[in-house]
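Escalated from tier 1: FE2/S2 (inorganic) cluster holo job.
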Amino acid sequence: MTLSISLIVNGEQKDIALEDPRATLLDVLRDRVGLTGTKKGCDRGQCGACTVLVDGRRINSCLALAASQDGAEVTTIEGLATGDDLHPLQAAFIEADGFQCGYCTPGQIMSALGLIREGLADNDPERIREGMSGNICRCAAYQGITEAVIKGHK
Ligand code: FES
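Tier 2 regenerated the structure:
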């Protein structure tokens, strides 16, 4: 049975026919919408690489069924920059060296944006580390990531 859903992805409506009702939001974003900035790490809710905002709140898109997101507004890493102008958080990650290999970076940035919008980020590194604890960086660039969230928050 094919299910039809509509998502607003980075401000654009996407009408998607789901042949597999068990498709995750992560797979739909990458394979159907063509936005591969959102990364698949563990595919089981443990690493945060797949973090996106849904209706303004951060989620692990590998754990969300796309079918249950019908009508939702989804923001991915591709939705942050305006033309050639990076979002302040993107610029802050570069400035603070908040990455090494970069694989987790889209998820880190989307999680940081959610944290800031939830009002849970301030200049306290401990609070930021706690709020970002669902986003794993295998290169352990945590000091730069925390600095980037502080810089991007200003
Ligand atoms: Fe979703 Fe790891 S890929 S949490």
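The pocket of FE2/S2 (inorganic) cluster is lined by residues 40-43, 45-50, 60, 62 (CB under 6 Å).
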